[in-house]
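Why does residue order matter? Because the sequence determines the fold. Keep that principle in mind as you read this record.
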Amino acid sequence: MRPRHKKHLTERMEACADNLISIPGDARDYREVIKEADYIDTAAYFGNDNPIHMEIGCGMGTFVVTMAARHPELNFVAVEVVADVIVVAAEKAREAGLKNVLFMRVDAIYLPKYFPPQSIERLYLNFSCPYPKNAYRRHRLTHRKFLSLYKMLLTPAGDLHQKTDNRHFFEFSLMEFSADGWTLQDVSLDLHNDPEKYPDNIITEYESRFLKLGQPIYRLEVKP
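Structure:
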């Protein structure tokens, strides 16, 4: 379902400028784009060189804003492609007075252009679009074309955390990670039936919706 167009979007985006990284659009093939590095000076944006955690597909921002508030010792970058969505997330961070979270409106496939190798300590994929039709599987954020990019971005000790309500997507992800040589660290087939194991779990907007429907939430942690 497409988000409704937000009124005064341009003005709202400008008001959140301190929490937004402006990226120019580029219609070329990503394989050509990422050859031309244009690395973001994250130390200048954040005013420090703390470890960076990144959420790809941040939605309305509940997860990343909560994480940033809980962990002032970390820096967070939140990636989202839809302007009407990312503006809401950026407004939450601004209202909370957070200085350790920044938002980027960019497709994940272009991230190696803007972040150098081994610069991200952890990646989060929370309720990514599952693209259920097999013909669109290359668009799934756990398809191996994305996994190769994640490997470049993550630090040697870095890892990736994924949550989804879609069992088919979760199984696909497990197979892709395995085929690409990632190491499975942790897996849950029903996250909320094991609350003691995951006491710090942050319930996102989508997660809340699926819980009300009685659907299990699948979770994994992997290392490249």
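Strands lie at 20-21, 52-56, 75-80, 101-105, 120-126, 154-164, 183-188, 218-223.
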